Structure to design on (251 residues):
């Protein structure tokens, strides 16, 4: 039986501003990437989200991003690799504190937004991300795309990793995500999303925006928690996994 992890970015509310439907989505996933206060979230949201994941038996991952609340961490920033390393360590420490409070543990790390996309291509940034993990806790796993600079850096430093694919994003021919600024970057039809995911899992292929099929490796499927269809996507994916004898299991 094939197994697959289903992850979602959660805990991205801030103060009085609510983003996502975390309490319902958490019922369908196996791993949660929890915002650490830089691109989204605050101490109270972090505390609540860690407890939510812990109570649901969902594996907890840190979702560190750039210090850009206004831009939701989706704007590129000119920050040195050493600063990136330090700010990731800082965010990991904050989330782990709440894990300790709730007698649970941190399992993985997945960078957010612009930091993620830049680390996919930039060797120095990728190595800064992985170095932060290695220095903080070398037992943590990295969640990153197949063939990226991040997975190369993880192999170099001996950090375990899982390869992530996206249910709700379109792909370029080089395996990177189509920028959100371009039309067609988001997959909004749930049936289309489910069909693409099943093909990525069973055939290791995805159709790019140019119509070309490329190889892809899927250990974990991501649904963005801030998407208005996040709950529907996770529900339909769980149903499709069950129908196709694919076990839902944390990576």
């Amino acid at each position: 039986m094939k197994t697959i992890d289903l992850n979602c970015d959660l805990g991205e509310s801030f103060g009085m501003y609510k983003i996502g439907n975390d309490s319902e989505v958490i019922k369908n996933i196996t791993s949660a990437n929890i915002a650490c206060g830089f691109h989204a979230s605050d101490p109270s949201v972090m505390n609540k989200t860690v407890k939510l994941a812990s109570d649901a038996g969902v594996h907890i991952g840190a979702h560190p991003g750039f210090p850009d609340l206004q831009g939701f961490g989706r704007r590129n920033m000119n920050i040195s690799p050493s600063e990136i390393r330090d700010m990731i360590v800082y965010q990991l420490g904050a989330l782990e504190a709440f894990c300790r409070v709730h007698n649970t543990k941190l399992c993985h790390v997945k960078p957010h937004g612009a930091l993620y996309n830049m680390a996919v291509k930039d060797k120095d940034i990728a190595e800064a991300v992985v170095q932060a993990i290695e220095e903080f806790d070398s037992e943590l796993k990295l969640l990153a795309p197949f063939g990226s600079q991040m997975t190369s850096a993880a192999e170099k430093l001996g950090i375990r990793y899982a390869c992530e694919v996206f249910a709700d994003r379109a792909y370029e021919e080089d395996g990177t995500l189509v920028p959100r600024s371009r039309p067609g970057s988001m997959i909004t039809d749930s049936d289309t999303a489910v069909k693409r995911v099943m093909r990525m899992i069973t055939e290791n292929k995805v159709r790019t925006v140019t119509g070309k099929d490329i190889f892809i490796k899927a250990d974990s499927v991501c649904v963005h928690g801030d998407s208005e269809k996040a709950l529907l996507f996770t529900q339909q994916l769980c149903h499709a996994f069950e129908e196709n004898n694919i076990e839902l299991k944390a990576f």
Q: What stands out?
A: The chain has one domain: 2-248. The longest strand covers residues 2-10. The CA atoms of residues 19 and 220 lie 23 Å apart.
